[in-house]
Amino acid sequence: MTPRATVVIVNWNGERLLRPCLDALARQQTGAPFDVWVVDNASADGSVALLEREYPDVRILRNSENLGFAGGNNTALRQITTPYAVLLNNDATPEPDWLEKLLAPLEEPGNERLAAVTSKVVFQPRFLRLRLQTTGFSPGPHDPRDLGLQLFRIRVGDEDVTERVLMERLTWGPEGSGEGRFRWARPEGELLVPLPDAAGPVRISVRWAGEREKTATLSWDGGAATLPVTAVPAEHTVEVPAGVPVVDVVNNVGSIVLTAGYGADRGYQDVDTGQYDEPTEVFALCGCAVAFRTEAGRQADWFDDDFFLYYEDTDLSWRLRAAGWSIRYEPKAVVRHIHSASSVEWSPTFVFHTDRNRLLMLVKDASLRFAVREVLRYPLTTGSIALRSVRQSLKARSRPAVRPTLMRLKVLASFLRLLPVMILKRRALARQSVVSRRRLEEWLVATR
User: Fold this and answer.
1) Which of 6, 67, 355, 367 is the most exposed place for a label (fewest CB within 10 A)?
2) Could you tell me the pTM of the whole model?
3) Which fold has domain 5-123+250-337?
């Protein structure tokens, strides 16, 4: 039968991830025939050998260098001839009916201008909800944050799960490096700790410190423990009994753009209680698991190769909408996603590309006033960060932290290099658009 869709998976050193992803695709229950293409971005592990040995029906497209998510997908997307092009991250495993549910809206009568359908993406593991409470304090006039304690490490049993704990609503971004790396936690908030599938009691260890000696309480459904907090980092352990409820947590149910110009995952880190179980139109798609009408993607010329990694899907969504296409979220199309399996959140690569590409996207797609405001804000914020670092170092009589400032200067240099190209693209988009930039900005979500 003639394929109706081509599923594209971009891979870079993802040998450990490919088998669960491809096996889940092989279990798809759908009446729509589909092909599977894997684009390998010059992997140095055994990815290609695995594909050749175990998945002979998968077409392999090899790039001679790592072209990132944008360029890697474009390698395949610009060759696809099926009516639908489907993207799936190599660290995502779809439910058996995922593809059937994802393609269905694109084939419904009256949806001829529907460009893309984005999936319900939940984090792969299930989570224990932990509530942290401690005494807060204000660090001083140059730091307006309300802080609780320094959180260094979290372990489940003997496994360090710090980077997989969902704590953005409790903590600020990481500081320090190596064994001294930590996050400041607010005085109160929720931690979502990934748990193994095996039943039984769970031992959870936390390593933390405070500005002084005090206590902190960790509570869960049906229990709590009050632990000491000292001025030097120390580890403490609690045992959570078997049978405590675990939950699914949302990764993405469509994407949004905030009024401050940042892209964000709709529903990010919300406990899934069914609140996102209705299909709805959304401003932007998530490139983790999405189906495109090939005609629409081809008209937009797919992703912008200059973005390499991050914000490429939001930029494409903005351009599709400017051309008069719509985007829908489909809650019945579910995938489970290993968050940041290929690139670590808050790593230098992550910070560089998210910062730079946000500015590039605004220059291309936003109204002039909005773009200029946010672009000018970036160097001003960079200067403020540098001054705050100097003040803190003088107070502590230590060397100032220069890495954040140097990273932002690197972002500015790369942004300025690409600025003339983005201005040309902006002008081309203005000539092709049927929906004004001002009208599209009605979708922006107010910053909380």
Assistant:
1) 367
2) 0.91
3) Spore Coat Polysaccharide Biosynthesis Protein SpsA; Chain A (3.90.550)
